[in-house]
Amino acid sequence: MTMKPLAILTGINRTSEPSSGSLILVSDLYRAMSGTHTTYLGRSPVDQAWKAAFDHLIPLSTTKRPQGPGFDDYVDELTQEVGALIEQVRPDVIHAQYLGFALSLALSRTAGTIPIVSIAHGPEVMAAERNAAEHTAMLEVAAASAAIVTPTSTLADRIDRLTGRRFTDRLTVIPWGIPLADAQVRDQPPSGAGPLSLVHAGRLDDTKSTITAVEALALTDQPHHLTVIGNGPLRNHLEHRAIELGLRDRVQFDPFLPRSELWRRLPDFDAFVFTTRGLEAFGLVLIEAQAHGLPVAYSELPGVKEILGNAGIPYTPGNPRSLAVALDEMSQDVHRRQALTTASLANARLYDITVSGRQLRELTLRVTSY
């Protein structure tokens, strides 16, 4: 007898399009999970190609409001809407994305006897560390969860400490992944020493610290070239800073690219520069770069080190001088760069989204006794 698919209700309280790492991850993850039927709650407008990852997508109608005055009323209204949707969908399990944000609060308050698997992404952990209301929300969702999934042991430990180690036995590490089969490596890696063609991709905000890469170029011995791909509030500041440093011809700014286009361009570069200086839950773009054969110069954060192992060159987070030294060393030592390319490709093979999907499904089945 064929069992009916496992019915999952999940969602992210943002526009339903591939505009961030978490949204791209979620679309990959549920597309990779066999034997499931996923209903997704999101916001309009809906990207139709992205929507195809889910069996059913329902746009939320409650007007979104941030933490502050009116937030509690907003969560109450969202909870009413979500409660009605749960009655309509009748899922076997709820996957609450972001441990403590508004939608996960609403889901936890209306789940009833439906088991909840909470999935941490990182921003909610940073929010809980700096804001008492966000911390309280995290505790509430954690208490309602049968399991809490994180992509690294580093993030799991931060959540464990934030929740007073009351839910240690609920924490499970499932590393994220990418569709490895779609990645392409350049036919022939560069073999000579000299200036590097560097790429940085991500949101241009203070946490991502793209300024570290721009300022590092002014301190390198070699005239490396940097392409910055992405949008964000610091875009204009970064462009002006590059001009101030006399780097107009060595720093190029390109807008956010859909992943297919970014992946098409990655093999054209010599190395990837990763500059985040705060908490990084996983850093999918690191694995994307490695899967395309790019050595990585990365800010030495605990979670990033856990993901990359020895397949990269670390530097002090937020320190342009340290990054400049790392880039010059990479450009001068051809053998090491070739070894890093080999190590990068091997490391990327550890992070296939099909494995992530299988592990999350297996955990979900254990929690639901499906």
Structural key phrases:
single chain, 370 residues, alpha/beta, Rossmann fold, 2 domains, seven-stranded parallel sheet, 15 helices, 43% helix, 18% strand, globular
3D structure, described in words:
The chain has 370 residues and is an alpha/beta fold. It has 2 domains: 6-177 and 352-368, Rossmann fold, CATH 3.40.50; 180-348, Glycogen Phosphorylase B (Rossmann fold), CATH 3.40.50. It is 43% helix and 18% strand. It is built from 15 helices and 13 strands. The chain has helices at 21-31, 48-51, 71-89, 102-110, 123-130, 132-144, 153-162, 210-217, 235-244, 259-265, 284-291, 302-308, 320-332, 334-348, 353-368, and strands at 6-16, 36-46, 56-59, 93-97, 116-119, 147-150, 171-173, 197-201, 225-229, 251-254, 271-274, 296-299, 313-315. The strands form 2 sheets. It has a 7-stranded parallel β-sheet, sandwiched between helices. A 6-stranded parallel β-sheet has the order 10-9-8-11-12-13, sandwiched between helices. Strand 8 (197-201), helix 8 (210-217) and strand 9 (225-229) form a beta-alpha-beta unit. The two termini are 15 Å apart. 45% of the residues are buried. The model has no long low-confidence stretch (mean pLDDT 93).
Can you describe this structure in just a few lines?
With 370 residues, the protein is an alpha/beta fold. It has helices at residues 21-31, 48-51, 71-89, 102-110, 123-130, 132-144, 153-162, 210-217, 235-244, 259-265, 284-291, 302-308, 320-332, 334-348, 353-368; strands at 6-16, 36-46, 56-59, 93-97, 116-119, 147-150, 171-173, 197-201, 225-229, 251-254, 271-274, 296-299, 313-315.
